[in-house]
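hiii so um. not sure if this is the right channel but i have a protein structure encoded as tokens and i wanna go backwards to a sequence. like what aa goes where. can anyone help
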């Protein structure tokens, strides 16, 4: 899912365009939120006009949908706001319609938006992966500590989909009124969010209102966070979510990625030894900026700068520990 960093963005600032791709019924407007130019995968806010009717059929791409406002009829069922669908590629959906119109978030994960009229599943569809749920009414809020170290208490989640191979997740999250978290976060995965309702705030990107959206590639600093009145959002990650927390607002994505590798090196040294292919196997591993950055109180003659150029290194202590005639010398 190679999409550019889109943040800050709010879909209320743009207009709907008519969906004119073959297969789709008329009366479908979309706002493109993010788009992968390699695969056509995308996330869109979609307005279905009153009286919209789409014949049965399947998408060629994996599709996730959640109803934002209004009522969506799927076959005989009336699905209201908060209803979430995971539709595998090739899975045949019944007729989709809406009497009064509705707003839906649609995420085509593996290819461009498509609708193939059909009355049965594609023979290669993984039909067992299909599921849908009224996420507002039929799932309780759980603590946000699915990933540890965890977000601060007051950020709750409802897990909607989990990929056991990649650990990618789709979830609702809410921030309770007066929620705040004072640290900075980045991840080894891309992160996506659409604000279904309410406003949250981030130090780097400001306020995300209702309709606010981001697609954020890995290693980009975000946080501190706060929400005055609370918010509810749909979130996704494209692989395993790990919260790398810190308090240095100046680090860039390259430094953050190096720190992630350094933490892997410290925690799983054997895995790191086999996995790393970073020019050559540097004997000291990649740099963890928290180990080497300047801190207040470090001015006592200790040289905290890491001076390795990849081939040799200096000691981190700039002052001299040995007599000149000592046999222990570093030349
Ligand atoms: Fe995050």
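sure thing!! here u go:
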């Amino acid at each position: 899912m190679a999409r550019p960093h889109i943040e800050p963005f709010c879909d209320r600032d743009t207009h709907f365009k008519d969906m004119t791709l073959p297969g789709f019924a008329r009366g479908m407007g979309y706002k493109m939120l993010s788009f992968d130019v390699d695969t056509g995968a995308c996330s869109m806010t979609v307005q279905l006009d009153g009286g919209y009717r789409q014949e049965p059929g399947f998408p060629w791409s994996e599709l996730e949908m959640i109803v934002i406002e209004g009522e969506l009829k799927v076959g005989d069922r009336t699905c209201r706001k908060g209803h979430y669908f995971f539709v595998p590629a090739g899975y045949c959906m019944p007729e989709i319609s809406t009497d009064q119109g509705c707003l839906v978030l649609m995420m085509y994960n593996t290819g461009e938006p498509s609708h193939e009229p059909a009355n049965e599943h594609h023979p290669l569809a993984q039909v067992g992966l299909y599921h849908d749920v009224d996420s507002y009414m039929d799932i309780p809020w759980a603590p946000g500590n699915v990933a540890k170290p965890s977000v601060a208490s007051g950020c709750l989640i409802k897990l909607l989909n989990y990929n056991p191979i990649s650990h990618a997740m789709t979830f609702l999250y809410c921030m309770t009124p007066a929620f705040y978290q004072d640290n900075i976060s980045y991840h080894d995965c891309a992160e996506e969010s659409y604000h279904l309702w309410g406003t949250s705030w981030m130090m780097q990107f400001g306020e995300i209102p209702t309709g606010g959206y981001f697609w954020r590639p890995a290693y980009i600093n975000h946080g501190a966070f706060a929400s005055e009145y609370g918010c509810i959002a749909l979130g996704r990650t494209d692989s395993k979510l790990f919260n790398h927390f810190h308090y240095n607002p100046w680090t860039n994505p390259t430094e953050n990625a190096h720190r992630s590798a350094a933490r892997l090196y410290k925690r799983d040294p054997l895995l790191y030894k086999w996995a790393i292919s970073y020019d050559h196997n540097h004997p000291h591993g990649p740099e963890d900026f928290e180990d080497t950055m300047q801190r207040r109180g470090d001015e006592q003659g200790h040289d905290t700068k890491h001076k390795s150029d990849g081939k040799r290194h200096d000691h981190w202590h700039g002052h001299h520990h040995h007599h000149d005639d000592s046999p222990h010398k570093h030349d």
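oh and The chain is about 10% helix and 35% strand.
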